[in-house]
Amino acid sequence: VLCTRSGHSGELQFSNGGIVFKEVAPQGSQGAWNTQSCCKQSNREDEVFPARDLFGASLEPPQSVRVWTCTTVQSGPKCKLKFKLQKSDRYECANRFSAEQFVEHVQREVCWGGQSTPPRVVAIVNPTGGQGKGSSIFSKQVLPLLRDVAGLSVEVHATASKHHATQIVRDLSNIDKVDAILYVGGDGTVFEGLQGLLSRPDWERAAAVPFATCPTGSGNGLAASLGVFDPVAAAFTVTRRRQHPMDVASVLQPQ
């Protein structure tokens, strides 16, 4: 897509290797001709967003786009893996249609697994978990990334009482059309959700639905064992759709 960044004209190109902004030199300046675009390329260094770091892209009114990346860094004495989120400068496109087309193309290839429609994510949010900041963390830090940057279809359910997560997941309709379940809370929220999933009449099909956890509870042991220590890591996990099988055990006590 043709666009400008900080007053410099160029092309924002997407490929399997990532996204590259190639600046175009003004008429009469030094540079090499690009026969594909019929534009004269600048000698300036290209801005590159590697595919492994891509998080998605967002549209900003009226016709600008931003590219979002997520990189990992070692943090703290225990060398925890921390996810660092970054957004690019604004790229001003020629019109809103071209900006929308570029954003959707990036979201589809990076976050939708090649699907033609946005994946459906069901978020189970425990607003009272931990220090009672679950809802705030999700609405301010996670939901905008999933909806605006990754372009996912997010259905949000807030729990109102103990065992409510079990009821919500057990009663979910069209489970075959759910691409992922995101538990926002601690280990208790995940436990309740899995109880609901495995107590459904169609539990064998339901158990195949991937789930992720966003650690906002007082105990986040499962999230920590998966290397998910913050909301950004949780969102990145959902958008990248990387799945690992997990065994579930049932312990029955006599009455």
Task: Please characterize this protein's 3D structure.
The protein is α+β, with helices and mostly antiparallel strands and 255 residues long. The chain is built from seven helices and 14 strands. The protein is 27% helix and 32% strand.
Global geometry: elongated
Written as H for each helix and E for each strand, in order along the chain, the element string is EEEEEEEEEEHEHEHEHHEHH
Distance between the termini: 67 Å
Total of DSSP H or I helical runs spanning 4+ residues: 7
Main β-sheet description: 8 strands, antiparallel
Strand content: 25-35%
Structural class: alpha+beta
Low-confidence runs: 29-42
Could you tell me the number of beta strands?
14
Mean pLDDT: 88
How much helix, percentage-wise, in residues? 25-40%
Radius of gyration: 22 Å
Topology record:
Blueprint (H helix, E strand, L loop, with lengths): L1 E4 L2 E8 L2 E6 L8 E3 L4 E3 L5 E4 L3 E7 L3 E12 L4 E8 L3 E3 L2 H15 L9 E6 L8 H16 L3 E6 L5 H7 L9 E6 L1 H12 L4 H4 L4 E5 L5 H5 L5 H10 L15
Parallel strand pairs: 11-12, 11-13, 13-14
Antiparallel strand pairs: 1-2, 1-10, 2-3, 3-6, 4-5, 7-8, 8-9, 8-10
